[in-house]
Amino acid sequence: QLKAHDEDRSAQLDYSLVEAQGVSGSQSVSLIFEVEKSGRVVLRRPLDFESWKSYTLPISVTDGDFSTETTLHVIVADVNDETPRFEINPIHLSAEEGTSAKRLIGQVRVYDPDSMVVNGVVRCKEPDEWAHRQALLFSPDPQAHPSAGRYDLQTRVELDRE
Predict the structure, then answer these.
(1) Residue 82 and residue 48: Cα distance in Å, rounded?
(2) Are residue 60 and residue 93 in the same domain, yes or no?
(3) For residue 114, what are the CA distances in angstroms to 73, 79, 104, 119, 131?
(4) 43: nearest Cα among 5, 72, 63, 80
(5) 67 and 106, same structural domain?
(6) Where in the sequence is the domain holding 57, given as residue range(s)?
(7) What is the arithmetic mean of pLDDT over 113-129?
(8) What is the DSSP letter of 31?
(9) How far is the C-alpha of 37 from the C-alpha of 30, rounded, in Å?
(10) pTM for the full model?
(11) Alpha carbons 43 and 31: distance in angstroms, whole number
(12) In the 3-class helix/strand/coil scheme, how is 106-154 assigned residue by residue?
C-alpha cells in the first residue's frame, strides 16, 4: 500500500504506475504490477526469482492539480521452487570391454536453479546398498569445488562383459 501526504486535507490522491521498463529494460512492469488509484500495489501474475530478481516501478500520485513521482523498488525473494537437474558429458557414455579400473568415462553435473541461499547447492552420493555392486564409481570431481556439483563417472573395476 502506497501512502503520500498532501497539505491540503481535502485533497483526493490518485496513484498510478508510470509506464517504464524492468531493471534489465526488456520487460514492462505494467504487465506484472498494477497500481490501483487507492495506492494498493497488486501483482498481475506470480513473480519468479530465477527470471527476474528485482523491479523498479515508477509511481505517480496526483491531487488533481499537482503531481509528483517516486520509485518503488521490489526485490524478489527466492523460494525452493526448482528441481535439481542433471547434465551428462558426454551425453552418451560408453566404455569398451577391458577398460581398466579408475578410468574416467564421463562427468555428471547436478545443479539447482534456485539461489545458493535457498537449496541451490546440490550434493549427491551413491546409495550405500549400491556401493561395490556396480561397474561404475560415482564420486565428486576432485578438481572442482563441492558447490560446483560435478561428479566423475569412473570404472570401478576392469570391465568384462561376461
Answers:
(1) 10
(2) no
(3) 22, 7, 29, 6, 30
(4) 72
(5) no
(6) 14-75
(7) 80
(8) G
(9) 14
(10) 0.66
(11) 9
(12) EEEEEECCCCCCCCCCCCCCCCHHHCCCCCEEEEECCCCCHHHCEEEEE
CATH number at residue 54: 2.60.40.60
- What is the DSSP secondary-structure string of 33-60? EEE-TTS-EEESS---TTT-SEEEEEEE
From CA 79, how far away is CA 76, in angstroms rounded?
9
The number of distinct structural domains making up the chain is 2
Is residue 1 domain-resident?
Answer: no
Domain contains 2: no
- Only one residue has cell 534456485, namely 114
Q: Is the pLDDT of residue 108 over 80?
A: yes
How far is Cα of residue 141 from the mean position of the Cα atoms in its chain? Answer: 24
- Same domain (yes/no): 61, 101: no
Quick: pLDDT tens for 41-91: 999 999 999 889 999 999 999 999 999 999 999 999 999 888 888 888 777
Cell of 38: 487507492
Cell numbers at residue 107, please?
562427468
**What Rg, from alpha-carbon coordinates, does the chain have?**
27
Angle 79-84-85 (CA atoms, 0-180°, nearest 5)?
135
**DSSP state for residue 28 in the 8-state scheme:** B
- Residue 24: is its pLDDT beyond 70? no
